[in-house]
Design goal:
The chain is built from three helices and 25 strands. It is of the alpha/beta class and 219 residues long. The strands form five sheets. Strands 7-10-13-16-19-22-24-25 form an eight-stranded mixed β-sheet, covered by helices on one side. Strands 3-4-2-1-5-6 form a six-stranded mixed β-sheet.
Length: 219
């Protein structure tokens, strides 16, 4: 069986969780030859983390076009910046063997679906999306590129989450809610109405507590 070489960009807690995901994938079906982590912080080069060593930064990957990479950075803004800097890289899509993926579900390049996640049916996930541990994505949901679902997020049917938005741990939506792009949803928030772009919202029911200028994520 052919094993594909893989590195994980990132060296924080989420990166180590994704290294565990890779181990679990390989236990079910040998797929990836995990080489180690990447981080542009030179002070971390050579460090040994749980599951591997920090091999270098983005430059390490540029001379190794056959090696796949997944960008395991939980923050949507930082993840997008790294993906942009790695233009032309071969991005891996990772799905935990204990995730439940239903019919007519599309999952974009570079996305990660973690253990215990449930994606029911007729769902679209963009590129570089994170569906974290124990999250539920119901029928007809659309998650655009670089969306992050923290653990135990629950999206009711027909929810749309715009590009780069970050749903905090344990947050929920009612049916057919739209979350605008690059918004931040606080932990435990309950969304009962549409959320504009570029805001932070918290509470039950949620309320907007901060408004950002469009393009704030590029600053």
């Amino acid at each position: 069986m052919i094993m594909h070489e893989l590195v994980i960009y990132g060296s924080g807690g989420h990166a180590r969780e994704i290294a565990q995901l890779v181990d679990d994938v390989n236990a079910a079906r040998p797929t990836w030859s995990f080489l180690g982590f990447l981080d542009d912080d030179a002070a971390r080069h050579g460090m040994t983390l749980g599951g591997g060593r920090v091999l270098g930064g983005g430059d390490w990957l540029r001379s190794r076009s056959s090696v796949a990479v997944t960008v395991a950075i939980g923050n949507s803004v930082h993840r997008r910046r790294v993906v942009s800097a790695l233009h032309g890289a071969r991005f891996a899509t990772l799905i935990h063997p204990r995730a439940s993926i239903g019919a007519r579900v599309s999952i974009g390049t570079g996305s990660m679906v973690c253990a215990g996640a449930v994606i029911t049916c007729d769902v679209q996930l963009g590129s570089h999306v994170i569906v974290n541990v124990g999250s539920t994505v119901s029928h007809d949901c659309v998650l655009d590129d670089f969306v992050t679902l923290a653990p135990r997020v629950s999206l009711a049917g027909g929810t749309r989450v715009g590009t780069g938005s970050d749903m905090g741990i344990g947050s929920t939506t009612i049916q057919s809610v739209t979350v605008g792009e690059w918004s931040i949803i606080g932990a435990g928030a309950s969304l009962t109405t549409h959320v504009p772009a570029n805001v932070t919202t918290v509470g039950v029911p949620s309320r907007v507590i901060k408004v950002r200028d469009p393009g704030w994520h590029d600053l």
